[in-house]
Amino acid sequence: MDTPILHALSRAVDAGRVDACAEFWARVEAVGAPLIEPDPDDPGQRLVTFVWRDDPAGPAGDVLALLHTFTDRDRHAGDLTPHLLRRVPGTDVRAITHRLPAGLRASYQFFVGTGSRADTLRTDRAAWLGVLDAAVPDPYNHAPTLAARDGRNPSSVLALPDAPAQPWARRRPGIPRGPREDTTVDGRRVSVLLPPAMGRQPCRVVVLLDGEVWGSVLSIGDTLDNLHADGRIPPTVALLVDTMGRERRMADLTCSEPFVDWLADVLLPWAGERYGVSTDPAHTVLAGQSAGGLTAAFGAFHRPDRFGNALSQSGSFWWPDPDETNDGPEWLTRRFAATERLPIRFHLEVGLLEWMLVAENRRLRDVLRERGYPLTYTEFDGGHDYACWRGGLAVGLVGLLSAGG
């Protein structure tokens, strides 16, 4: 797809203007990338052009634009060709344009192929992991990057004009900072984020799953410090629980009663004794994403005596009966439908691009509403993406932690 900006570049090159490329890249450097233009056919969309500058000393074979969820979906379908950048003839510019929702937020990277096109377009797991290991952020994107784990490069973030604001995501200078303590509880690694001031009353408490991502990689402590500084949450202690190991994650985050009981009967009493956090379930939030989002809702269902608030982002509510009795998918949704209302509040959100999760989250929403649960529910323009979750997590915490008296 050609856009007005690319048309103008092509016309200038065709007219023999020797400074055409230099002017194009000067514009990119000034406004930042990707390049965003109105969609003449739909005011709810934008034309978004991702650009890559070839190195004249060693031009790339092919370049892929890896736009979170969009590229993943095509990779699962076995075809990455819609994500190949094309060279603008006579220039050092490679570009690809997507028509995207005006409210989209998504992380993205570039993969610069050095082999054949066939190798670059491979979609098997081994090849895809190699792509992710080598992918790099956009050097022309002016926004702060999204950090990665496991030695991978950070991602750039695209936030189109109507994307929800994320006013608490970034570290602010000059505000009080809460201390962090890294420890081990009963053999499991936990990072504890304390508020800048503990206050007179017992602190509220958030148990946040996948703590090794939220703590060391994404610095959720900055968000909590900002929320405290703005008075949006009462003094709150966050317990970031490590759950990312593959075998551990499957064991812990698939409606596991032993894991939830450990959180309720070991972790929370430990935090109460050491930090004086509240024992009131109305002041306790269990939060997670994906399988962690499933576990947040299950944890409140299983132990409402300790978890009175569930914050689920992109919850994997398709999960079947954990006892493997072939009772079908969406086991937890059916349990809520069959049970009288429990003393739980919910904050649920899911990305409209999460094609495997939207319908399942909507069905849980409908069941909870029918049962009369206090519930906030959001659908955002985005995918299974920490670039979206870090903003939604802050919003959910404000809603749940400021409620309950």
UniProtKB/TrEMBL annotation:
Region Disordered, residue ranges: 160-183
Cellular component GO terms, alphabetically? cytoplasm
InterPro entries on file: AB_hydrolase_fold, Enterochelin_esterase_N, Esterase-like, Ig-like_fold, Ig_E-set, Mycobacterial_A85_antigen
- Where does the record place the Enterochelin esterase N-terminal domain? 48-168
Is this entry keyworded Hydrolase? yes
Provide a Gene Ontology MF annotation, just one: iron ion binding
Which keywords annotate this record? Answer: Cytoplasm, Hydrolase
* Localisation per UniProt entry: Cytoplasm
- Does the keyword Acetylation feature in the UniProt annotation? no
Its GO biological process terms?
carbohydrate metabolic process; iron ion transport
Q: Which NCBIfam families match?
A: PRK10439.1
Among PANTHER family, the record links this protein to:
ENTEROCHELIN ESTERASE-RELATED, IRON(III) ENTEROBACTIN ESTERASE
UniProt record similarity statement = Belongs to the Fes family.
Q: What is this protein called?
A: Esterase
